[in-house]
Amino acid sequence: MLILADISGYTAFLQSVANAHGEEMAALPEVPAYPLMTSLLDGIVARLEPWFRLSKFEGDAVFAYASDDTFPIRGDSVLECIRNCYADYRARRDKTENLMLCDCSACSRLHTLELKFVLHRGNYVVQSIAGHDELLGPDVTMAHLLLKNKVLNVIGPAPYALITRSATQYLGIPLEGSVPHAEHYDHYEPIETFIFTL
Q1: Where are the alpha helices (DSSP H) in the chain?
Q2: Which range scores top for mean pLDDT: 12-21, 53-62, 117-126?
Q3: Which end of the chain is more exposed for a tag (fewer CB within 10 A), N or C?
Q4: Residue 30: is it exposed, middle or buried by C-beta count within 10 angstroms (0-12/13-18/19+)?
């Protein structure tokens, strides 16, 4: 199992904070927005564990994985794991927003940060590169490509989980309430997925 939890708007938020507080950032050891963002990422990892193992942070995304023999949850429990992670994220984000000391237009954009998930079942190889285990393979690439999708055109601006057919079939995830969707990328057959609004 390969899962990515991506904070949408993260890069724009940090850039706007940097633009608004550039001088402060140069003078102070820490700007409040950064540890608060760290808290959001920590919360995502805490909710995905113990079902998934953290592979790495990728800027505004958490990439985690699990082998078939260590992934015991199935069906509705998989959706519950994702929904619980999202609910905790929202609670942390809302609490964090109340703790922001600055109410400038940049910092006040914290509430616009949303969370989206991609869940895919596929093959991967764990390769040690520069002393760190990296996941490699076409399915790993596919999971990452799925972060750049056309889901917004289908459901509008809403938090969601995009789950591939291979994951829904293997895990027995019920499809009621989901929206069938296909994504197209170079070098891949159309990827059948299901959109679950959170």
Answers
A1: 10-20, 22-27, 33-48, 76-99, 138-145, 151-155, 165-171
A2: 117-126
A3: C
A4: exposed
- Nearest-CA neighbor of 144 among 101, 183, 110? 183
Estimate to the nearest angstrom the gap between the alpha carbon of 198 and the chain centroid.
Answer: 13
∠ CA 79-167-57 to the nearest 5 degrees? 75
107 pLDDT above the threshold of 80: no
All structural domains of the chain with their residue ranges: 2-7+38-102+115-197
The CATH architecture one would assign to domain 2-7+38-102+115-197 is: 2-Layer Sandwich (3.30)
pLDDT tens for residues 4-21? 999 988 777 777 777 777
Strand 160-164 and strand 114-120: pairing?
Answer: parallel
Whole-structure pTM value? 0.89
